[in-house]
Specification:
Helix 2 runs antiparallel to helix 6, helix 5 runs antiparallel to helix 6 and helix 6 packs antiparallel against helix 7. The protein is elongated. The N and C termini lie far apart (100 Å). By secondary structure, it is an all-alpha fold. The chain contains 7 helices and no strands.
Length: 202
């Protein structure tokens, strides 16, 4: 009698455990499906909620930022002013992540991503871009000459970026891109004032 009752209890417990596991498995499957659906929906929204201006902004601002990073990287060894070195470091810290973000947008949209390169002749008509001759002069300068040249060139470079960002703010459709453009305008206008002050113009 005791053996029969024990078996009955064991059978009941096994059935209950099986039902519980099945239910959990079903929940996991639903959660996974929901997560996959959410990710797909998010990717679709990201890829769809943009216009031609957003694409142009990313494709032009990436090489523009890349040149700024190239210019800033020279300051550590060539600048004589600690303020110039600090400014250059801040420019690198701000613009490198923005390049990565814009690259991600273009890939999500199925658009071409500009490749990093040392030849700037293809971007000569872009607002604020330095020519290859300008870059060669900057690379050859040292000390106070470098400081003055770097600040003068970077003011022009920043002014070009602000102009490009202003167009994105006015005509862009992709929220993260117009937000980045707004940040570029705010940050780089502040740095322009800082650089003009270092040049004795502010």
């Amino acid at each position: 009698m005791t053996v029969t009752r024990t078996r009955a209890v064991l059978v009941a417990l096994t059935a209950t455990a099986t039902l519980a596991l099945t239910a959990c498995g079903g929940d996991d499957g639903a959660d996974t499906a929901h997560a996959s659906h959410s990710a797909a929906a998010s990717a679709t929204a990201s890829a769809g909620a943009h216009n031609a201006q957003d694409v142009a902004f990313a494709q032009t601002m990436i090489p523009h930022h890349q040149q700024a990073l190239e210019m800033a990287s020279l300051a550590a060894d060539r600048a004589s002013s600690a303020q110039v070195k600090d400014l250059a470091a801040r420019i690198e810290k701000a613009q490198d992540p923005e390049i990565n973000t814009m690259t991600g947008w273009l890939k999500a949209w199925g658009e071409d991503v500009p490749m990093a390169g040392m030849d700037h002749s293809g971007h000569a008509g872009m607002a604020g871009m330095m020519s290859d001759k300008d870059m060669t002069m900057l690379k050859q300068a040292k000390g106070k000459d470098f400081d003055t040249m770097f600040l003068t060139m970077m003011v022009q470079h920043h002014q070009g970026a602000v102009e490009m960002a202003g167009t994105e703010k006015a005509k862009g459709d992709y929220g993260p891109a117009t937000s980045m453009a707004d940040s570029v305008v705010t940050a780089q206008n502040a740095e322009i004032k800082e650089m003009n002050k270092l040049l004795g113009k502010g």
